[in-house]
Design brief:
single chain, Immunoglobulin-like, mainly beta, 57% strand, 3 domains, five-stranded mixed β-sheet, 362 residues
Length: 362
């Protein structure tokens, strides 16, 4: 992904993701999902001396110029098959989910035949200089990957500082507050009309400070364990960005921790058993009321899972439990074993504890 020093990614591409976008065609085949005859044709074309197609774009770059954050732009790249054989567009990779691409017609273009690729760009998640790359993948023998690019300079009437409420890794018993300042870049007074957010997991408030607003964000104890992802939408009087998105991210630690976090039973001979120890601990007292077991042998769910695993719980104190897991190989079948143990607990903030386990039946 090409980028400039001033470009700022606000949401969506917070992690460096390169999603494989579906190619909408009259054949309705996704990227990489080709009909058998198309696969065979492409292989034959590459491995023989039969003529192949060659893609040629009239223009490989579009500059949208200066735009307001929140604007949606589109452009069309036109290409022609200048080769002597068939040209197949097998897919398009975009450098971010802010861009969608759609080749026209079908997947096969004869010699001299033209086609188009439509590109849509949503600027709501960016500010500053932005450049995005798109890779067109074809069946050409040489240079089967061609790169297109779009660029824009995005001005924002509103800025959020920081651009997201990132809590990092937190404990359910220590959920700190985050503060976001919404800076007014408009020539008129900023007015926040409403905040939209998930009230089940978030406490959110705001106050006006001079020309700006300060938004207070706090996680509720009901926020789910693990990676937490939500968005606060700030409804305001900006004409270009009437819905300002503020992402909320956190990794919420388990109330009940298991050590080890997953169990390896190793190789188990037919009719033999293997036992492992797991320690459960919590800052608050808890009990385990029931359990369920799912076992898959060579990727196929086995109905014997509940009979092959024995779970013995021994309370150490009110905040911890020792658990013995014993897995038996009944014999008759061999292969890779993968399963999941789910424990139902009395902890209201973590009602379930799950443990993955692995083994090999021989």
């Amino acid at each position: 992904m090409a980028s400039y020093p001033r470009a700022t990614r606000l949401v969506g591409c917070l992690a460096s993701l390169i999603p494989l976008l579906a190619v909408a065609t009259s054949y309705s085949t996704a990227f990489g999902a080709k009909k058998p005859e198309e696969n065979a044709g492409n292989r034959s074309n590459k491995l023989t001396n039969e003529p192949a197609g060659v893609i040629s774009f009239q223009n490989s770059m579009t500059d949208f110029g200066t735009v307001n954050r929140g604007q949606k732009m589109s452009t069309t790249f036109t290409f022609v098959n200048i080769g002597k054989g068939p040209l197949a567009i097998q897919g398009v990779q975009a450098s971010c989910d802010c861009t969608t691409v759609t080749p026209t017609k079908g997947k096969i273009f004869g010699p001299g035949e033209t086609g188009t690729i439509e590109v849509n760009f949503d600027s709501k998640d960016y500010t500053g200089k932005v450049t995005k790359a798109l890779t067109v993948i074809t069946n050409e023998r040489s240079m089967s990957d061609r790169t297109l690019s779009i660029t824009a300079t995005v001005n924002s009437e509103l800025d959020a500082a920081p651009p997201l409420a990132d809590f990092g890794t937190v404990s359910p018993n220590n959920l700190a507050q985050q503060t976001i300042r919404v800076k007014n870049r408009m020539k008129t007074e900023l007015k926040i009309e409403k905040l939209r957010y998930n009230g089940e997991f978030l406490d959110v408030g705001y106050a006006k400070e001079g020309a700006d607003y300060v938004i207070y964000v706090k996680l509720k104890p009901t926020a789910p364990i693990g990676f937490f992802k939500e968005t606060i939408w700030v409804e305001n009087n900006s004409t270009a960005l009437p819905d300002l998105p503020i992402p909320v991210r956190a990794t919420i630690e388990n109330q009940i921790a298991a050590a080890p976090a997953y169990v390896e039973f190793g190789s188990i001979a037919a009719t033999k058993k293997s036992a492992r120890q797991v320690a459960l601990s919590s800052l608050n007292g808890f009990d385990v009321t029931s359990n369920s077991i799912e076992l898959n042998l060579n990727g196929v769910k086995s109905e014997q899972g509940i009979n092959l695993m024995q779970i013995i719980l021994t309370p150490a104190n009110k905040n911890s439990k020792n658990m013995t897991l014993e897995l038996q190989n009944p014999g008759g079948k061999s292969g890779n074993v993968h399963g999941k143990i789910t424990l139902l607990t009395t902890n209201p903030q973590q009602k379930n504890v799950t443990l993955d386990f692995y083994a090999f039946f021989r």
